[in-house]
């Protein structure tokens, strides 16, 4: 009976150069829509503080990670500061089958990996209104060293050069407007025929 | 400076079996967004009442219509009750270049013609929640003869069988929900890279 029980979930991939306001926008979306599932990543780094296995991360050994990776179990993975991080495909697919959406807050390299498994996902690129504005935002936070800012800007340069990869572009020159667009892209994605398995039931009556 | 002056307009094509509530939804969208241009169609039928050439229609002769059609000037045309109706491509393209969106409220055959010229347009199929519900809506209006209702239902059967053609499916089981989805699909379409010529200016700074 319920629509949510039969339609498929959407893979929503959101990328943005650091300082674009991505976290704020994603948190707003998660808060408005209870339809997102959470995927717990795998990592080879040691737990910190109160982190629990299976909650913040699945903490696994380097050998296990490499074995899983060689079996093709990750839809994306990366090495950061000599530790591996990865998302297993199976739990994501399970959530999608149950009608839950899955949001990936990830860098451009990760997005490109995800496209191979979830090629019908919705790939969104958020961008700042200008390079100057981004510099001001990064500097204005007052929390980062000059070196760190320079590094973020260099990363931004690299990511902006790959904007063409994405299905949708959202310019964050106004937070409310950018959120309305993100929300629209998400809602529109839910209307794509390949996810509307619930509609197949309606169509059966006509065929 | 203004975004609207440089981005390209979107072709929005909306199809629905008669009785689905298409007109209500389209009127709401046009009322909310002032970004839609109006395209005046061509017809070979005679003007009625106060109709003025170039306002309701461009009234042209059958010979002129056939000549325009053979020159490929129409992006869609149809014959209804021995009269021709058609939309000229050039004025539509001009509006799109100026950043105006163009909405086509058209049948499935017309939509299929439009895809040939505007293959990157946004093609939406609105549908009733069930065949039974559609029958009740058509009967409940009390304005149509039994014969007319039977004909509308037969048309609906034919159109529903072509649902696969469309990019988006919206089920009108609740008018507010259906409108929110239509609005989202429209807004999301405006975020597609091929229309965001304004963003090209941002990207130039980075390349």
From TrEMBL, chains A, B:
EC identifiers of the protein: 2.7.4.8
GO molecular function ontology, one term from the record: ATP binding
SUPFAM superfamilies: P-loop containing nucleoside triphosphate hydrolases (SSF52540)
Subcellular location(s) per record: Cytoplasm
Gene3D superfamilies assigned to the protein according to its UniProt record, in alphabetical order: Guanylate Kinase phosphate binding domain, P-loop containing nucleotide triphosphate hydrolases
Pfam families listed in its UniProt record: Guanylate_kin (PF00625)
Ligand binding (ATP): 16-23
Family matches, as InterPro entries: GK/Ca_channel_bsu (IPR008145), Guanylate_kin-like_dom (IPR008144), Guanylate_kinase (IPR017665), Guanylate_kinase_CS (IPR020590), P-loop_NTPase (IPR027417)
Guanylate kinase-like domain residues: 9-187
Keywords noted in UniProt: ATP-binding, Cytoplasm, Kinase, Nucleotide-binding, Transferase
One Gene Ontology cellular component annotation held by this UniProt entry: cytosol
Catalytic activity field: GMP + ATP = GDP + ADP
Family: Belongs to the guanylate kinase family.
Main function: Essential for recycling GMP and indirectly, cGMP.
NCBIfam families: guanyl_kin
Protein name: Guanylate kinase
